[in-house]
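Final report, Chapter 2: Outcomes

The project's central promise was a pipeline that accepts a single protein chain and returns its three-dimensional structure in a standardized token representation, suitable for archiving and comparison. That pipeline is now operational. To close this chapter, we reproduce one record exactly as it appears in the project archive, with the input sequence first and the structure output second.
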Amino acid sequence: MTAPQYEASVIQVGNSRGMRLPAGFFQAHPEFKGKVSLTPVGDGQVLMSAKVPAARGAAAETADPVFASFLSFLEKQLTNHPEHIAPANAAQLARIGKLVKGVRLDESE
């Protein structure tokens, strides 16, 4: 299942530029009100994140926005499609073991 995509237009706003997004985007994602942050993630690609309320603190500000976005996507998929959840098999665990071989965990945090 792919996430819906929205088209936006870059427009002149005074001496700056802004983006005009369709109302459907804000109806589907009410968390995007007020301030947002934009993180370029590749050529022609940007990750837009809703600013975290002050109550969530500094830990959320230092989090990797791409990883946080992936975890949010994963959470939605697991909630909306629990039938897709399956236990990892021995071959998958062996592959994961090879991928993380030699990785050291910084436990100072």
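Archive annotation: The chain has a mean pLDDT of 84.
This record, like all others produced under the grant, will remain available to the consortium after the project formally closes.
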